[in-house]
Amino acid sequence: MVRGLFGAITMGVLVACGATSSSTAAAGTEAAPPLEAGQAEAIFAGGCFWCMEKPFDKLDGVLSTTSGYTGGKELRPTYQEVSYHRTTHYEALRIVYDPQKVSYDRLLEVFWHNVDPTQADGQFCDRGEQYRTGIFTSDPAEIAQAEASKAEAAQVLGQAIVTEVLPAATFWVAEEYHQDFYKKSPAHYSRYRTGCGRDRRLEQLWGDSAGH
Asked: What does the H/E/C string look like for 24-36?
């Protein structure tokens, strides 16, 4: 296996988050719409956003998941700009949920079990600042919950956690071809996960709690 900036080459097939033959450059992305009454949001960066949607879509109380970009200062970033380090954004996931049905603590638990929080230079085979892990918080309660869960994760793993707890920033909705990619292109998605070694590493870290 040859590991590169955007993914891994396995059996001669490029498997990379965001790299598809149908991808096209966009004029720019749009900010996520405001929440409706009774809704809440959680924003997590966990490496390739393709792989972060499915675990949360399974949860009762999650209303939607959206792949996008956050944590950067540039306006309307595109995938091409983010992937080639022309912005300061993370690939991230916006989860809109019903707090009466699922708690923020439960979302944090699912987040940890789907990332390698000990890896500072990206996630799995995807290397670069845009693939770092992060929890983007919007109020003191979320900060406290995120920090508490981070401490618990460090205790469970017995290792230092490099995932940062950061202030929420504008969430820019990624291009349409990224949304629900695991449903739209299941074969490509499966090749990417396998080639990137994501599930293998999650099992090493979390054992039976690994989120796949």
From this structure: CCCCCCEECCCCC
